[in-house]
């Protein structure tokens, strides 16, 4: 087998690209194929294409429905600004698809034609066999790489964009060694993605950094330079960091673990605040002024969700355990334990306030997505909280501006110990007012702007409350509301409660309307 894959992953200095000694120009890539048309593959490829008109970027996926949606005006994911990069207005013709961006189900052909392949397939937590519930499932990645080995007739740079366990590149290299054709070389790079949903386009256009990990060999470094050259079309060279392949893989897991750890830390403190009469927003503000701590990702909540924090921490802990670093594994798992505790604590507070019984009570749930400005519900705290409330006998009335009823039912029925409760006691509504009609309590689970009674500036002061538009409302939002809490107060059963799992409402004006407001990390008596 002449497939040449180099293994020198020795220490490499961390260098911004500019410091490279290589003076010859990097290889110019003209065809990129992105495997996986999901939350990462779609937006990343669209931004890459719009910033590199000379490069043909094709996103491939076996999911024909998803590809068809990318080709339509009805994109498969909701993300502010996404349509603008997929279908930029050009030459006075608005809404024309970027001429160098393609979506296709012809995986073999697109892989064969590409010089550089981005792997953006899902890497969920393994559900079966060894490591089930902990390790990352790499079967999608493996199958994509097998396909590359089978169909590639020319050498390729293969880029791990998916989040992977450290040393996953070695596995990919093994697969390629076994499946690749003689004379075809593969160079594997790690280029993890750091975008957050809801702000993906902004994050892609102005990344804090672009991380490129490669082997410390001439071929590895050359491949890294070729990938970096694509990014330099819109990212300052100082922000493009080239490091060792395995450091890059681990840095992605570490970044997510550290971000989630901050949220669990502040949520753990929120429990103390409720007990001692302190205010978590004030504590968070006070500690965040210390430059060494910083203010971001310190917003107390009902608990973090999303497809990645939990799975990436589980993966990190599993790796630590495999290395017999049991205390390290336990440390990271505690971040998840606090998150589960926070969701349960929030439900228990609701039950306690509503006189220890939810039987014959109706609760309006505002928000189902795991954060605002996305329709994504993966690992959303709403799933746990709503299932808990249903188990307590409550009637649950849900409204989310972006999540479809079918998705809500699928998520809840698929995770509930008693799916019949979801069928019998859950209703989904298309407006706040319909959801709140006759309800005993409003439970805010997602920080959508329309639920807030704060000014845009006050809302923007919080980190994850700040949106891509810096708190400005679109014309549509301005026309439709923010919601009128006064109107809500007129249609609810008394006494009326608001349980604010996101601290997006200012309690005082609501209390003036007769609501009893319970916010995360604040006690009513302490306010
Ligand atoms: N969702 C997010 O905000 C972020 C996700 N990531 C990471 O990026 C990776 C992808 O995440 P998402 O885009 O959210 O996943 P996703 O589930 O939205 O998309 C993955 C896509 O890959 C396709 N796919 C799987 N195997 C394939 C194959 N062999 N050939 C062709 N297509 C295949 C699936 O059909 C699916 O459409 C994961 O590793 C994730 O941890 C990283 C940063 C942010
Ligand atoms: O690997 C990934 O998938 C991505 O995971 C997160 O992005 P994302 O999950 O989309 O969104 P975040 O803004 O990080 O929020 C995650 C969860 O934490 C919650 N959160 C966030 C911030 C905060 O201060 N408090 C808080 O409860 C959010 O509401 C949400 O439920 C990271 O922020 C991204 O850098 C990373 O690329």
Large-scale geometry: elongated
Distinct helical segment count: 20
CATH classification class of the largest domain: Alpha Beta
CATH superfamily of the largest domain: NAD(P)-binding Rossmann-like Domain
Provide the residue-averaged pLDDT. 91
Note the beta-strand portion.
Answer: 5-15%
Query: Any idea what the CATH architecture of the largest domain is?
Result: 3-Layer(aba) Sandwich
Q: Which structural class do the helices and strands define?
A: alpha/beta
Number of strands: 15
Write out the strand line-up for the largest beta sheet, numbering strands in chain order.
Answer: 4-3-2-5-6-7
Helix % is 40-55%
Q: How many domains, in number, for the residues? A: 2
Instruction: Please outline the major beta sheet.
Output: 6 strands, parallel
Q: Any ligands, ions or cofactors bound here, and which?
A: 1,4-dihydronicotinamide adenine dinucleotide, uridine-5'-diphosphate-glucuronic acid
